[in-house]
Design goal:
single chain; globular; mainly alpha; ABC transporter involved in vitamin B12 uptake, BtuC; 347 residues
Length: 347
């Protein structure tokens, strides 16, 4: 039996390494096209021609400002958030050994929402706008620590993934109750702002916030990518993975912390944007198999492309108004996921 997840071993996931570069190149091209579309289209009426003139140094200052200081940082933020949610969803599906797991299953989004809503309702976010993502990130970290502590205390012999799921569900229900309590005390404007944030929105983007997000996400992404072989072994069962040389408890802890940090940073930057971390890795798995050496980076690139397209649609469908990005991902994600399930069931 192969211990490194190479093709041909018993229980080996589909999707051989020889296909990986070509498939990842295809997804990278799709992400670049989605990025170009995101920068090219918006409510201001500027189009692809203006983008090319800007890149050639021939555009007027107003056009350059709109494209390079407004649209481009928002597109970069969408790319990072989409990629992070895609690979985090893939990680949780591997960690929990459940193809229907998603990044918010362990209560991180609920903790982030409590932090953001608390900042909004108390009025601090109006005086100091930068405190809203900070409050969301702090809430997400607190939720992550709480769920991990519950899971480790409830299963002292090791981190049981079933207990981890239950801890996440319980924490999520508690956080939802706190959110409702805070909203019941909010004024109309604070209530509206909190709800709009919880629907997912990338409008508060800028080069500074994008750089901070990249500094948090890229190291965590690298850590998760390094666990690809271990995830392949875990897919055969924890006992099998242990006997094949994987440090099972260490892998589970590192995967949980790294993926939760990615989710926390993403939610702090763009609110609760659903379905990306659920349907993207699931779609890649159905198309190309279960080899995490391909599945993890492919989920990142596919998540990037998906959220870029969704955010572009959010900006142009009802222009000059704007839809919450999370609403677009849900509207697009539900029928797409139903199609995936129907196709997967016929395999």
């Amino acid at each position: 039996m192969s211990t490194d997840g190479s093709a041909g071993g018993p229980g080996q996931p589909r999707g051989t390494p020889s296909h990986t570069p070509r498939r990842l190149a295809l997804l990278a091209l799709a992400a670049l096209v989605a990025l170009a579309l995101s920068v090219s289209f918006g409510a201001s009426g500027l189009g692809p021609g203006d983008l090319w003139r800007t890149l050639a140094g021939e555009a007027d200052p107003a056009t350059r400002t709109i494209l390079l200081q407004l649209r481009l940082p928002r597109a970069a933020l969408a790319a990072l958030v989409g990629g992070a949610l895609g690979i985090a969803g893939c990680t949780f599906q591997a960690l929990l050994r459940n193809p229907l797991a998603e990044p918010y299953v362990l209560g991180v989004s609920g903790g982030a929402a409590v932090g953001a809503v608390a900042v909004t309702v108390t009025g601090i976010g109006i005086i100091l706008p930068w405190t809203l993502p900070l409050g969301a990130f702090a809430g997400a970290l607190a939720a992550m620590a709480l769920v991990l502590q519950i899971a480790r205390r409830a299963s002292p012999g090791g981190m049981d993934t079933r207990v981890l799921i239950l801890a996440g569900v319980i924490a999520g229900a508690f956080f939802n109750a706190i959110i409702l309590l805070l909203l019941s005390m909010a004024d109309v404007e604070s209530f509206r702002s909190a709800i709009f944030w919880m629907m997912g929105n990338l409008s508060a983007s800028g080069w500074g916030s994008t750089a901070i997000l990249a500094g948090l996400l890229l190291p965590a992404t690298a850590v998760v990518l390094s666990l690809a072989r271990a995830f392949n072994l875990l897919s055969r069962g924890e006992e099998v993975a242990y006997y094949l040389g994987a440090s099972v408890e260490r892998v589970k802890l590192i995967a949980y912390v790294a993926a939760s940090l990615m989710v926390a940073a993403s939610v702090a930057a763009g609110g609760v944007i659903g379905f990306v971390g659920l349907i993207v890795p699931h779609a890649v798995r159905i198309a190309w198999g279960n080899d995490h050496r391909l599945l993890l980076p492919a989920s990142f690139l596919a998540g990037t492309a998906f959220l870029l397209l969704a955010d572009t649609a959010a900006r142009i469908v009802v222009a000059p108004a704007e839809l919450p990005t999370g609403v677009v991902t849900a509207v697009a994600g539900v029928p797409f996921f139903v199609i995936l399930l129907m196709r997967g069931g016929r395999r």
